[in-house]
Amino acid sequence: xxxxxxxxxxxxxxxxxxxxxxxxxxxxxxxxxxxxxxxxxxxxxxxxxxxxxxxxxxxxxxxxxxxxxxxxxxxxxxxxxxxxxxxxxxxxxxxxxxxxxxxxxxxxxxxxxxxxxx
Length: 118
What we know:
Blueprint: E1 2-7, E2 10-13, E3 18-26, E4 31-39, E5 46-52, E6 57-59, E7 67-71, E8 77-82, E9 91-99, E10 105-108, E11 112-117
Parallel strand pairs: 2-11
Antiparallel strand pairs: 1-3, 3-8, 4-5, 4-9, 5-6, 7-8, 9-10, 9-11
């Protein structure tokens, strides 16, 4: 129904930047929210940011002021611009979509690894 593919991960030194991309295909007109989540080894998955179909944005306190979520004109690709990266940001990053009328994030990508070294 909706397929998601993340890209843009890699290794960077503390203070560096990366831009992650989430490409959506399928029934993209049904997407109400696109969210970014991350999970480090041994830790629970945590919310990072989301953007609604109207462009409203929300961020976790830990990334506020450093990360920016946005979409392209067609709203089929969602970006996460990450600035001033810290070692604590090291994790596998996933994008997910919440469908209009749904009750949860229904579709998930396979993830892209971000590693930040000090």
